[in-house]
Backbone:
């Protein structure tokens, strides 16, 4: 599957049942297309006021005061499928997507600086691969934060929903059951561009979470970022994961350079 470090599918030991589920979910995503007409799903809204991000509070305050604030990810400079495919073919040694992970973590109240990790790219070279079925490409960038291994995938597809090709990886990293994966896929497919969607915390006893953010659409294609937090210390709250993923989406849209 082009340049990379072994693909995005989860461990094979999950067996045929999971593979069948993922195939069903992928088909549902393809039928959804690239529409992002609604806000985040009910599973995130039930977190309550205490779980909401300070970023969201500031946005509401600005609107009430008459200040017009563009939605996160609304800028036209967000990378489209063609740009992401070019990065995936030749990702280089540092993340080619314009992310500033240290700044995103600071904005979310995480006071530790991450160290850059491995970078890889995957394209639709293999006709039997998930990426080939949706004319897709992805860039996989890593950072180390204490004991945690953060992975940030930037994925583009020519048809269907961008998050679809990473559902097996999301299920693995977040420890989701089959029913939880289906629910998450529905929420991610319905979310507006720029709105983070988070997996439930504590899947299968771990503390890893995954956040997805759809980027603004470009013609017939779709693109998204997927942040996987890994497990270990420092502990990251749900609010922090949400804020980091939203800040990263805004950086990509503005065309920021990483730090």
Residues:
């Amino acid at each position: 599957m082009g340049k990379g470090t072994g693909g995005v599918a989860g461990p094979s030991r999950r067996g045929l049942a999971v593979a069948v589920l993922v195939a069903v979910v992928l088909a549902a995503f393809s039928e959804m297309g690239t529409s992002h007409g609604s806000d985040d799903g009910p599973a995130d809204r039930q977190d309550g006021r205490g779980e909401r991000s300070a970023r969201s509070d500031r946005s509401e305050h600005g609107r009430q005061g008459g200040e017009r604030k563009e939605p996160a990810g609304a800028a036209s400079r967000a990378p489209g499928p063609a740009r992401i495919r070019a990065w995936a073919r030749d990702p280089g040694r540092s993340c080619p997507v314009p992310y500033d992970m240290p700044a995103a973590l600071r904005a979310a109240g995480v006071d530790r600086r991450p160290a850059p990790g491995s970078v890889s790219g995957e394209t639709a070279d293999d006709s039997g691969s998930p990426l080939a079925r949706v004319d897709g490409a992805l860039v996989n960038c890593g950072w180390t934060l204490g004991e945690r291994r953060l992975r940030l995938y930037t994925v583009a597809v020519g048809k269907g929903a961008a998050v679809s090709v990473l559902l097996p990886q999301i299920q693995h990293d977040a420890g989701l059951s089959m029913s939880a994966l289906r629910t998450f896929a529905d929420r991610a497919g319905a979310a507006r561009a720029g709105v983070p969607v988070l997996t439930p915390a504590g899947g299968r006893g771990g503390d890893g979470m995954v956040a997805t953010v759809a980027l603004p659409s470009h013609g017939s294609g779709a693109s998204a970022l997927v942040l996987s937090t890994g497990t270990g210390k420092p502990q990251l709250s749900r609010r922090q994961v949400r804020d980091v993923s939203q800040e990263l989406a805004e950086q990509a849209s503005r065309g920021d350079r990483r730090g």
Remarks:
- DSSP finds nine helices and six strands in the chain.
